[in-house]
Amino acid sequence: MQFAAPAELYDRFMGRYTPTLATALSDAAGVTSGLRVCDVGCGPGGLTAEMVSRVGPDHVAAIDPAPQFAAACRERNPGVDVRVGVAEDLPWPDDTFDVTAASLVIGFMSDPDRGVREMARVTRPGGTVAACMWDIASGGMTMLRVFWSAVRTVVPDVTGEAAMAGTTEGDIADRFRRAGLHEVIAGKLTARADYADFDDFWEPFTFEVGPAGRYLQTLTEQQRTAVREACRENLPASGAFSLDARAWYARATIPSA
C-alpha cells in the first residue's frame, strides 16, 4: 500500500511515535558506527534520521514507494541515498548492507515474504535484517486500539487492521525463518507519543493517513461523530496526555555462503 497523504500529515498522525520507536528498533538491530545500513519503507525519514545519527549520512540508504515521503526523507536527511521504490524489488545489489531494517512497513507490503527475501538479498552474509510492526491483534498500540474499539461500537463487524502482516506476536519471526534466515530473535519494542488534548488525538484521524483514517472517511457524518465520542470516553477528558504503544519485532542473521 502506498500512502498518499503529505509528509506533514503523517508526522501528526503516526510520526509522533517515530523518535522512540526508531531508537528502539535501531538498538535491537545493532545499528552502530561504521555499518552500512538501509531503511526499507522509510516514510518521511524518522528511522533514517536515527540511523544517520549513528553511522552518518554516507552510510545510510532509504527507500519508499510514496514519492512525497521519499522527497521529505531526502530533504530531512541530506546526503542519504534515498530512492522511490518498493520493498519487494529493492534497487541495490546483493550484499550491499550490514543492517537492513523496516519499521511499521511489513504490514503494508503487497507480498511481505518477498519483501523479507529482498531485504535479506541486499544484506551481506553475517549481516542483520530487522523489522517491527504495531501490536494490533492484542491491542498493544493504544492509539489504534482506542480508535478501532470505538468503531466497533458503531460497526460491530469491522475487521480493522488485525489481519495485516506482522501485527500478531511471532508473525515477523516466522517470516524470517521461512526466508531461511538464521539466529531469529523476536520480542517487543515500546514507543510513546504526547498529545496536547483530545482534539490533538482526534484530528489526525481525519487526514486519511493509513487504514484507520481511510476507513473513517467511508462512514457517514453521524457515524464519524459517534466514533469520535466513543474515543473521547476512553481518553482523558481534558488537558495533555501520553499514550504508549507496543510493536512486535524480529531480527535475524543472514547465513554465511
UniProtKB/TrEMBL annotation:
An example Gene Ontology molecular-function term: methyltransferase activity
GO biological process, one term: methylation
Keyword entries, A-Z: Methyltransferase, Transferase
Top-level taxon of origin: Bacteria
Entry annotated with the keyword Oxidoreductase: no
Transmembrane segments: none
InterPro entries in alphabetical order: Methyltransf_11, SAM-dependent_MTases_sf
Methyltransferase type domain residues: 39-130
SUPFAM superfamilies for the chain: S-adenosyl-L-methionine-dependent methyltransferases
Protein name listed in UniProt: Class I SAM-dependent methyltransferase
Naturally occurring in which organism (per UniProt): Rhodococcus zopfii
